[in-house]
Design goal:
Blueprint lengths: L4 H5 L2 H22 L1 H8 L3 E2 H8 L3 H13 L3 E6 L2 E6 L21 H23 L9 E5 L5 H9 L4 E6 L1 H11 L7 E5 L10 E7 L7 H14 E11 L10 H13 L7 H11 L2 E6 L6 E6 L1
Parallel strand pairs: 4-5, 4-7, 5-6, 7-8
Antiparallel strand pairs: 1-3, 2-3, 8-10, 9-10
Bound molecules: S-adenosylmethionine.
The site of S-adenosylmethionine has 14 residues, from loops.
Pathway: Aromatic compound metabolism; melatonin biosynthesis; melatonin from serotonin: step 1/2
Protein name: Acetylserotonin O-methyltransferase
Pfam families: Dimerisation (PF08100), Methyltransf_2 (PF00891)
């Protein structure tokens, strides 16, 4: 197998080590909830709904936890009458009694926000080019990056598409930090727009980028936002979703399964399959939906008005 230069520079190992944290959290959460004991005691495969009922936990959260445990090969999942049933493997984790604390929702102080923005920024040092060039975006001259945060994707767009301008649309506090710490005022092709994408009008653009935005929100909120994007989008324009896509059968990738579980504690959203994003896009009116898997953590979906 040939190794491209890009493969050599993609820090898979570091990313795997970062994933280790999420893996530990998943394992400890499953132990603390008694998932393995419950499945073992049942002596038959159980659905996510049955496990949730038995443990007194939410069905959605339990489904994600079981999915991540299956990805980690702590459980197996059997298909039965179109239903996924979880079965415990030969795993004895119940002796692990470490306490699991949930991560606080939201970002508070300036210092925390700056840390969050650096975190958001860091992954794009590695794979922004892959998502921005997953499709040829040359025809889109006016681009808005909704929830554009540190501007990493905006910068990559201006490099890849010299004929385009990009506006970072984000909450006022984030725009302030982005201007101060991340985007040089010398960069004349990047501008800022302070606003709330749920409450405020979206300016007209040829392309809207929503990178790691919809995974923060429920289907209802995501539809609300996509409806607004569709209304503001110029005819022939489009929307680019950048997300970690789950396989259609939910069997992986492990990173997306773990991220989806993480979203449960940090946001109201979840990671989705490409078909689920396609449904949301179609409902908003978008057509010609194309999916590009990059082979890295984040994939791209382009849809047109
Ligand atoms: C998970 S981060 C993704 C940031 C960036 N797109 C990326 O991929 O690095 C979500 C971003 O959406 C912004 N955001 C959240 N709610 C928003 C709102 N109502 N209006 C505008 N931006 C919002 C946040 O400030 C944050 O920058």
């Amino acid at each position: 197998m040939s190794v491209t230069k890009d493969d050599e520079t993609y820090p898979r190992k570091i990313l795997q080590y970062m994933e280790g944290f999420l893996i530990s959290k998943t394992l400890f959460a499953a132990c603390e909830l008694g998932v393995f004991d419950h499945l073992e005691t049942a002596e038959r495969p159980l659905s996510a709904a049955e496990v949730a009922q038995g443990l007194g936990s939410s069905e959605d959260g339990t489904r994600r936890l079981l999915s991540a445990c299956a990805g980690l090969e702590l459980l197996t999942v059997q298909q039965c009458n179109n239903q996924e049933l979880a079965v415990v493997e030969v795993v004895r984790w119940r002796h692990v009694t470490l306490r699991v604390k949930t991560i606080p929702r939201g970002v508070g102080s300036d210092e925390e926000m700056l840390k969050f923005m650096h975190l958001m920024n860091s992954i794009w040092n590695i794979c922004s080019k892959d998502v921005v060039t997953a499709f040829d975006l040359t025809p889109f001259k006016i681009i808005y990056d909704l929830g554009g945060c540190s501007g990493a994707l905006a910068k990559q767009c201006t490099v890849a598409y010299p004929g385009s301008t990009v506006t970072i649309f984000d909450l006022p506090k984030v725009v302030h930090m982005s201007r101060k710490y991340f985007v040089s005022s010398q960069d004349k092709r990047i501008s800022f727009h302070e606003g709330d994408f749920f409450k405020d009008e979206l300016p007209e653009a040829n392309l809207y980028i929503l990178a790691r935005i919809l995974h923060d929100w429920t289907d209802e909120r995501s539809s609300e936002l996509l409806d607004k994007v569709y209304r503001s989008c110029s005819p022939g324009g489009g929307v680019l979703l950048v997300e970690a896509l789950l396989h259609e059968d939910g069997s992986g990738p492990l990173t997306a399964q773990l991220y989806s579980l993480n979203m449960l504690v940090q946001t109201e959203g979840r990671e989705r399959k490409a078909s689920e994003y396609a449904c949301l896009l179609t409902a908003a009116g978008f057509t010609n939906i194309q999916v590009q898997r990059t082979g890295k953590i984040y994939d791209a979906i382009l849809a047109r008005k």
